[in-house]
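Quiz preparation item.
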């Protein structure tokens, strides 16, 4: 293996931890920089024994810490992704999106590293066409409740693309669509996580609307594969690439599958007010053409693996909503990040 030294900002989070694992397993030295605000030590702890993961507790609002090696590649996943988390301190969220990206750019420029920036479908605004069209943008409410994250993401893309152009920096931008899988936070507020948690806890599965709206969910192994292929390609910041699973399923079918896989006897309850973001389906023509990438893991298989992981994290019986006697569901423990000090 051509071993590289690679920084992953936000590497203890959901997506970042899967990328850290793939890179370390491929023989690279990975430096995970994370403030553990939404990430968890558990997400990467299995990699310590490989000797190929170094962990630095670090806030990307500050420039990269001194004493780190020169990086060949830098991945930027450092930003809370769940509305519950990013709305807690929206000013900080907006700043992390932009200043965190700037610090990754500056370090990549100093090291001559290639940078991957994790952007998302949010940059398209409300989807005006279906499936989402890579050239079609609509406005987002700049003072709405999600603006700190969505507008932060848009400005970060502008910054990455302009900085790369002005400084001839080698950057790739991945626009990630809704992704699910093991190590996702139980309070992520995504469709899959919400329904699985409700089913495992024996609560009603709540769906907004009549259940006939569709969603497109990408399994995290597929997404990680797309990110790594994008990094290995020659795509630059002038060509952001959409990464997501275009396969659609209705919310009612998704809920039924979750009930089946958890063995839960919960009810599916339809709420009239439509709050779930729906019909956001990626067009992955560009990813197929330039990366030869397309998602392979079927929804049933991805959900099965996610249910197993959530059952373990929540301390519930994977066969259904029955709790082991005396088990308190550690929802706060699952949410809380063990604030371990950096252990280089
Ligand atoms: N999960 C998805 O479906 C999805 C979809 C589109 C885009 N994205 C984007 O991908 C990125 C990662 O998403 P995720 O789902 O892994 O979220 P996550 O919350 O699980 O991971 C974010 C990680 O960044 C860390 N972090 C946050 N603020 C930091 C700071 N100031 N300094 C250092 N570390 C910090 C957190 O502790 C966590 O480990 C985010 O930018 C998100 O917007 C995710």
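Solution:
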């Amino acid at each position: 293996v051509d071993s590289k030294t690679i920084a992953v900002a936000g590497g203890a989070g959901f997506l970042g931890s899967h990328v850290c694992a793939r890179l370390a397993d491929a023989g690279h030295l990975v430096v995970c920089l994370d403030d553990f605000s939404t990430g968890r030590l558990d997400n990467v702890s299995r990699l310590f024994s490989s000797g190929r993961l170094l962990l630095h507790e670090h806030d990307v609002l500050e420039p990269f810490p001194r004493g780190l090696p020169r990086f060949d590649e830098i991945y930027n996943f450092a930003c809370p992704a769940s509305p519950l988390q990013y709305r807690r301190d929206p000013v900080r969220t907006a700043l992390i999106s932009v200043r965190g990206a700037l610090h990754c750019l500056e370090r990549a420029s100093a090291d001559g590293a290639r940078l991957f920036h994790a952007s998302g479908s949010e940059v398209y605004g409300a989807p005006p066409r279906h499936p989402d069209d890579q050239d079609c943008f609509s406005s987002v409410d700049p003072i709405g409740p999600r603006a700190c994250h969505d507008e932060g993401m848009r400005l970060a893309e502008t910054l990455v693309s302009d900085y790369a152009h002005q400084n001839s920096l080698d950057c790739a931008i991945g626009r990630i669509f809704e992704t699910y899988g093991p190590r996702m936070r139980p309070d992520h507020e995504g469709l899959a996580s919400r329904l699985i948690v409700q089913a495992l806890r024996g609560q009603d599965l709540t769906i907004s609307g009549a259940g006939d709206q569709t969603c497109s969910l990408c399994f995290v192994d597929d997404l990680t594969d797309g990110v790594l292929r994008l990094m290995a390609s020659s795509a630059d910041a002038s060509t952001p690439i959409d990464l997501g699973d275009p396969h659609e399923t209705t919310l009612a079918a998704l809920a039924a599958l979750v009930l089946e896989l958890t063995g839960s006897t919960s009810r599916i309850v339809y709420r009239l007010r439509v709050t779930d973001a729906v019909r956001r389906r990626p067009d992955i023509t560009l990813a197929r053409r330039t990366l030869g990438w397309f998602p392979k893991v079927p929804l049933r298989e991805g959900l099965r693996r996610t249910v197993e992981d959530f059952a373990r994290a929540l301390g519930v019986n994977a066969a259904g909503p029955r709790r082991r006697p005396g088990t308190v569901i550690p929802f706060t423990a699952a949410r809380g990040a063990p604030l371990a000090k950096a252990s280089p």
